[in-house]
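Note to self: the last two entries modelled the partners one at a time, which told us nothing about the interface. This time every component goes in together.
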Amino acid sequence: IIETTQLIKDYSLGKVKVRALSGVDVVIQEGEFVAIMGPSGSGKSTLMHIIGCLDSPTEGQYYLDGVQVSELHRSDLALIRNQKIGFVFQSFNLLPHLNVLKNVELPLMYAGMSLRKRTEKAKEVLASVGLSDRLKHKPTELSGGQRQRVAIARAIVNDPAIILADEPTGNLDSQAGGDILEIFTKLNNNGHTIIMVTHDRIVADRASRIIRIMDGKIFDGNLDS
Amino acid sequence: IIETTQLIKDYSLGKVKVRALSGVDVVIQEGEFVAIMGPSGSGKSTLMHIIGCLDSPTEGQYYLDGVQVSELHRSDLALIRNQKIGFVFQSFNLLPHLNVLKNVELPLMYAGMSLRKRTEKAKEVLASVGLSDRLKHKPTELSGGQRQRVAIARAIVNDPAIILADEPTGNLDSQAGGDILEIFTKLNNNGHTIIMVTHDRIVADRASRIIRIMDGKIFDGNLDS
Ligand SMILES: Nc1ncnc2c1ncn2[C@@H]1O[C@H](COP(=O)(O)OP(=O)(O)OP(=O)(O)O)[C@@H](O)[C@H]1O
Ligand SMILES: Nc1ncnc2c1ncn2[C@@H]1O[C@H](COP(=O)(O)OP(=O)(O)OP(=O)(O)O)[C@@H](O)[C@H]1O
Ligand SMILES: [Mg+2]
Ligand SMILES: [Mg+2]
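The predicted structure of the combined assembly is written out below.
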């Protein structure tokens, strides 16, 4: 379902080039639960953004369900991002002028759902991450871990086939973090593909496989968790 | 050195009041290394902001070195914040238009240091957190854990007497996280007072005491780590 071939990603800063990915090959099957681990700055978020169709590589190919993503039209890409992929960002990326409920309802608007159904579904997902009493708060009126949970809720509200979670428990105590892992495990049992970046070995052990990345290269892609 | 008496903090959202702290008493001696733990949303960051003179309580008193902080003039407060306290924010709060080096040099400007000395000191601290090769990057051109390390560097560059770190290792792998704890331990051995919010028990065990907070109240303030 997800296959990358020799992905290279360079950033240019003036005359200096920073190579964030140096030839990355990953293959992830439908329904897998994969953890990605590696040192700070090793390229994990960069890889996640390419897999999530939010960024394109400098070189190399990315195939999603057999389709080469670089060949897709902008409109097809937008559809995939909205319907197939749910992304939990490392820095949350919530919309600051919308409250918690509206932030989580947003992905459902493209699904053509009525307002009543969108609100119902968003409330349900927010209840599952323990935020029923924060629906009207804006992101700046939340704690760090509450923002992280809103980001998680927003990523899963649409029931996407693929969930990409970039360090989803970094701001959560072990209780709340455990609740999130339960949610991901349930979704995976229902057939969703989960790809999760984490620095926490306990979290990584929930996955069935750990991909290790170092200096922009896959170090070991097939470690059983 | 730090003493709070029945701190209460309320936030108002329209007609609704959210009580984030419900009568918090803490006493922290000079040179202690204290960890603060508790569930997401329990009031840890709120307490840290009051201790760091960045926010004032709704009720209750806060004494810093015997001085009641609410009695201080704005200019005295600014001086304390800049010289006595180093704050690592949970969401980093780096200045987006300045590069890494300039972000870390900033606190040194009030110390009346020459530019040459400021640059030298900032580079030294950035080397200690492993970011010597990222000095000219802007915050948006860094990984999450690199931003966290810049925030840490900025908080300690001024050698402040009190270091307040709000979840300083949440975005770091265990190697980089261990390096940060080494830095804090060294600073503590040199007499600096360290107050650190963390969700990580391994991190908390570096401290000599753990303060537990729950629903805006101190649950247990004297657990030996
Ligand atoms: N500006 C605000 N307006 C309204 N409520 C707020 C505001 N800021 C924080 N809160 C609420 O106050 C409570 C305490 O927030 P705080 O940031 O101190 O929690 P925390 O213990 O640091 O949590 P975390 O571990 O998730 O970072 C939370 O329930 C939060 O929703
Ligand atoms: N816009 C950019 N311009 C220049 N370099 C960048 C940019 N974004 C990221 N980088 C660099 O690319 C490298 C990989 O970044 P990435 O965010 O993928 O790391 P990461 O593995 O997610 O790290 P962390 O665990 O700290 O989140 C880092 O060294 C970073 O400095
Ligand atoms: Mg990252
Ligand atoms: Mg907090």
